Amino acid sequence: RVAVVGAGVSGLTATKCCLDEGLEPVCFEQSRDIGGLWRYTEHVEAGRPSLYPSVISNTSKEMSAFSDFPYPEDFPVFLPNARLLDYLRRYAERFGLLKHIRFGTTVVSVRKGPEFATTGQWSVVTETDGKQTLHYFDAVMVCSGNFSEPSLPLHCFPGIEAFQGQYFHSRQYKHPDVFQGKRVLVIGMGNSGVDIAVEASRVAAKVTISTGRGAWVLSRVFDHGYPWDMVFNTRLMSLIRNILPGPLSRGLINYRVNQWFNHENYGLQPEKSCLVREPVLNDDLPSYILTGRITIKPGVKEFKDNSVVFHNCPEEEPIDIVVFCTGYNFSFPFLEEEVVKVENKHASLYKYVFPTHLQKPTLAVLGLIKPLGGIMPVTEMQARWVTRVFKGLCQLPPQSVMEKEVNEKKKNQVQRFGLSFDEVLKTDCLVYMDKLASFIGAKPSVLGLLCSDPRLALTIFFGPCTPYQYRLGGPGHWEGARQAILTQWDRTLKPTRTRVPAGSSSPWLSLLTVVGFLL
Questions:
Q1: Alpha-carbon 129 to chain mean position
Q2: How far from chain centre, in Å, is Cα 210?
Q3: Do residues 267 and 393 share a domain?
């Protein structure tokens, strides 16, 4: 029996993977519905993620699908939150997940069972309608998410206590009418910050974004109008990025992101462009800067009664409303600190999943990662690996080996990303997925396929690394994987080709023809 904490994206796929492996999942969800982050509510609910109604996915549907359940072809390429929730409902219905979920049930505590050293069992206390119940489970999958505890570091902003205007965290934001005719300051250059600034600029008198370190800004519409991640996240591109020397690889990335517009001219150039930053996905920001709707300023030096002073800018700027887009903290209040200890927004987890010091590997954390790509396929791959570890079909390395890797990865992430906010949770999506897939025997072999199925091999290597690749073989093999890969561009272009007849669907077709001929 496996306890699954949370019925969001991670919890749903964890429940499904348990069923695939013949385990008995019981999923506890404190709210009355599935969806987690993607279920919009008009009011902010304590302990739950909160999003604004205009949120759209930053990754395309083909790159963020579960690996054995493609999106319907008529769904848009980038999904409004309501359509993504619809997909999750279809997923839950298709694989019969709802009957394994106990809604309105909060997990109060998860503690080691009395015979943990030999059985690995956990005692789990839950609460429903004020009544607490004790359960025993053979394993636990923590899928509680990391977008419900806002980080509001007011101590970093001198004078904020004297500021007479309004301020709030982005978690509280729902509609732009609160900014009508106001002078708005958005602090933070993440996706939410830019989204809110763009929406506010349509009704506000003035909008300013304050960023101390800048950001790379990408459009969802990339080369030749194709989705950014289907062009960026390919095996060929990943190979190039990882075999090139660090400075050359970073220079290539800098060149690519500056092709849309020169970030330095717009005041957006990252403070340390030698570090790889998580890109901000927004299609409107450059034009809004050009038209004066949004102004970019450096970090805040101090607040006054009704104004703000920026670093390197002596004059005060009058401000009415401040929106702090300063990210989130995460914690596991139902776990003892000795099980998963969080320090500086970092938990020492092997492969971002397993605590390194447990005598039995029967507790795993899913979704505590920020891949430079879709989160749904990543959490699914984590769940596929975890369930096989629970069954004893995959073994973890010795504790010393795991701890050494965790510490080295932390150092590498600091060097590569720079340690700020959630940087240590970021990782290269494709490399990470391949590593976990190799653990369970599901990593596709391009060379092997080149002999048996050259068309598929070339599509996998040169085309987007869609999740279906990890269902071609091994545990969880899906008969429809090959067809899903070969028709991925059909589903991508179907919702946009609404006026002209569909022609050749793959932008890689001519390239594949040439490479095939040469081979």
A1: 32
A2: 24
A3: no
Residue range of the domain that includes 204: 150-328
Q: Is residue 504 part of a domain?
A: no
296 falls within a domain: yes
Q: pLDDT digits over 156-208, tens only?
A: 999 999 999 999 999 999 999 999 999 999 999 999 999 999 999 999 999 99
Residue among 93, 58, 61, 81 at smallest CA distance from 484 = 61
Same-domain check for residues 299 and 254: yes
Exposure pattern of 460-469 as b/e (b: 16+ CB <10 Å)? bbbbbbbbbb
Q: How many domains does the chain have?
A: 3
Token reading at 242: 């990882």
What confidence tens digit (pLDDT) does each residue in 271-320 have?
A: 765 555 678 999 999 999 999 999 999 999 999 999 999 999 989 999 99
Tokens of 27: 């999923």
How much is the pTM? Answer: 0.92
Q: Which two tokens stand for residue 437?
A: 């897939």
CATH code of 189's domain:
3.50.50.60
Same structural domain, 385 and 457: no
What is the gyration radius of the CA atoms in the chain, in angstroms? 24
Strand-pair category, 149-150 with 328-329: antiparallel
Per DSSP (E only), the strands in 369-476 are 370-371, 426-427
CB 412 within 8 A of CB 361: no
Q: Are residues 244 and 343 in the same domain?
A: no
Same domain, 47 and 140: yes
Q: What is the pLDDT of residues 13-61, one digit of tens each?
A: 999 999 999 999 999 999 999 999 999 999 998 888 999 999 999 999 9
Dihedral sign (CA 149, 153, 155, 157): negative
Structural domain contains residue 407? yes
Residue count of the chain, please give it: 519
**Is residue 503 in some structural domain?**
no
In 129-255, DSSP assigns E strands to 131-137, 139-142, 149-150, 166-169, 183-187, 206-210, 217-218
Asked if residue 324 and residue 375 are part of one domain, the reply reads no
Query: 254 and 195, same structural domain?
Result: yes
Which stretches in the chain have pLDDT values below 50? 415-424
Domain boundary, last residue among 292, 309, 328: 328
One DSSP character per residue, 470-519 reads GGSSSTT--TTHHHHHHTHHHHHHTTT-SSS------TTHHHHHHHHHH-
Contact 325, 186 (CB under 8 A): yes
Cα 329 from Cα 146, distance rounded (Å): 7
Q: Phi and psi (nearest 5°) for 456?
A: -65, -40
Q: What pLDDT score does 421 carry?
A: 36
